[in-house]
Design a protein that fits this description.
Helices cover 69% and strands 9% of the residues. The chain has a five-stranded mixed beta sheet with strand order 1-2-3-5-4.
């Protein structure tokens, strides 16, 4: 059970090492280096040290580094028994160091084990671990029980202070994370509000204008159809019908853009199926389907739409294959045509389109890529964007 009291596990934030500034890291390494040098000097100056003391001390320190890393990982994951086993191993390494004549090193390990037990374990587990390490310290050193008790009290107090400091740091980190999440949610809400405002403006101006144009063009078509048949009448009727079709497509695209601004877009697969329903296009979707971000979804839609339109303009009648593939962290779209056909001059002059430049810019803004060029048969457009 995790809680703020020291009788339970410290929070995971308190047991997780927070990033530090480079200056503090260098200072910490310097302090540890000075402490290690002092410990080695004390070990070599001890009367019990011998020729094998230094190699054994180095081996014990190397093992202790691995034990400390595992202990920190197990306590961070709140795994009690593996952490206790490593504390017991640390006490055993201290006994090895003491047997080799490295009494200062053994004392440092026993003291460090006490501080680590109080700082990172629940009280019910820290108490027996502290008792074990202090018993080893009392039995094998000549300080006496009073010295042991005072030393133990000071170590427990130091461990408790370290625990409180870690809890305070963890709480500050948790509050900082919550504040960042709140700011991100606020920014996202502000962006959604702005996008909704833009969508309303577009709807009030462009969508209404296109709807009115369709009504007038339909009325014009009906009036023209009542006139006697002739070459001029047929040409005008064809142009009016073509303009009405363009207005209808523009209104459809406007509504799709409004849905994207409001975050109400249909799944990409449904959009592509609707796109190919009126075209001789082959569609395949591969990989596990998942929701895409607004930017990636809009990029896939626009690139597919523009690529199919370009085939109609430059290679009418060509067979088109669209392949959408969901990868681990990206989505790819490939539009490939078989080539052939004579460019449709009427579609070529029907107005400026999105264009390859616009498609490439949209992909680059999202951190993706777009490649377009001749393939084995016709033209190939390949899009890859993060998703």
């Amino acid at each position: 059970m995790t809680g703020v009291g020291w009788t339970s596990w410290p929070s995971r934030e308190a047991l997780t090492r927070t990033p530090r500034a480079p200056a503090r890291t260098v200072l910490s390494l310097l302090v540890w280096a000075l402490a290690a040098a002092g410990l080695f000097w004390a070990t070599l100056s001890d009367s019990r040290s011998g020729p094998a003391t230094l190699p054994v001390a180095l081996a014990v320190i190397a093992c202790c580094v691995r034990v400390a890393r595992g202990y920190h990982r197990f306590t961070r994951e709140h795994r009690l028994w593996p952490a206790l086993a490593l504390l017991l191993l640390l006490a055993g390494l201290a006994l090895v160091a003491y047997g080799a004549g490295a009494t200062p090193l053994a004392t440092a390990l026993w003291c460090g084990g006490t501080v680590l037990a109080v700082a990172r374990l629940p009280l019910r587990a820290a108490a027996p671990a502290v008792a074990l390490t202090l018993a080893c310290f009392a039995v094998l050193t000549s300080g006496g029980w009073m010295t042991t008790l005072l030393t133990g009290a000071g170590l427990c107090l130091g461990g408790y202070v370290a625990r409180l400091d870690a809890e305070a740091t963890g709480s500050a980190q948790r509050l900082l994370t919550q504040e960042r999440a709140a700011r991100a949610a606020e920014a996202e809400r502000a962006a959604l509000d702005e996008r909704s405002r833009i969508a309303r403006e577009i709807h009030d101006v462009l969508a209404h204008s296109l709807s009115a144009q369709m009504v007038h063009l339909e009325a014009a078509r009906l009036l023209i159809e009542r006139e006697p048949s002739g070459a001029f009448r047929d040409q005008v009727l064809e142009r009016v019908v073509s303009a009405r079709s363009m207005a209808r497509e523009g209104l459809t695209e406007t509504r799709q853009a409004l849905s994207a601004l409001r975050g109400e877009m249909t799944p990409v697969e449904d959009f592509l199926r609707n796109l190919v329903s009126a075209q001789p296009v082959e569609l395949s979707v591969e990989g596990p389907r998942r929701p895409l971000s607004a930017g990636a979804s809009q990029a896939v839609r626009r690139v597919a739409q523009e690529a199919v339109t370009n085939v109609r303009k430059h290679a009418p009648g060509a067979h088109v294959r669209i392949r959408l593939e969901y990868l681990l962290d990206t989505v790819t779209l490939e539009v490939r045509d078989s080539g052939g056909g004579v460019p449709d001059e009427e579609l070529m002059t029907g107005g400026p389109g999105y264009g390859l430049t616009g498609m490439r810019e949209r992909a680059e803004v999202l951190g993706g890529t777009l490649e377009a060029g001749p393939g084995e048969e016709g033209f190939v457009v390949s899009l890859r964007v993060p998703a």
